[in-house]
Amino acid sequence: MNELDKMIKANVRNIDTARSRNMPISIYEVAWIFLIYAFFGWCTEVAYAALETGTFVNRGFLNGPVCPIYGCGILLVAVVLTPLKENLLILFFGSIALTTLIEFVTGFLLEKIFHNQWWDYSNEHFNLCGYICLKFSTLGPGLYLCHGYCTSFDIQNN
Fold first, then answer.
1. Where are the domains of the chain?
2. For the chain, which terminal residue's Cβ has fewer other Cβ atoms within 10 angstroms, N or C?
3. Which burial class, exposed, middle or buried, applies to 28 when counting CB atoms under 10 A from its CB (0-12, 13-18, 19+)?
4. pTM for the whole thing?
């Protein structure tokens, strides 16, 4: 068996392993998952802000209809917690922990790097430094799980 055949067999084995774990297997799938959730996250943020203020508010720190934190959140949840998808309680609390951690670190870094705070939960109950609060820490992962449970992350399955 030559080197090329060995490399092809190794890659096929890696793809089969990724498929058996229901994880994204290509950069294209990862990019689509990221973009779809970043867009839907932006839509959710804009809709929530419109309901709160009565006007259109372009949420996010980028120009364009995306909030990257949502794309990163779903990718982290999908990759890290897919092996636990049979246990909804662990999946829910794991989603809360992971997405809350992302939100806290992102909020902290954005403020330190750009000297601007893109969101402030200081007026919400049970907040930590204004970066995270209980209300949104449970709402976001709950929505992720509703979609993930209803679709079984079909976008990742081939």
1. 22-156
2. N
3. exposed
4. 0.72
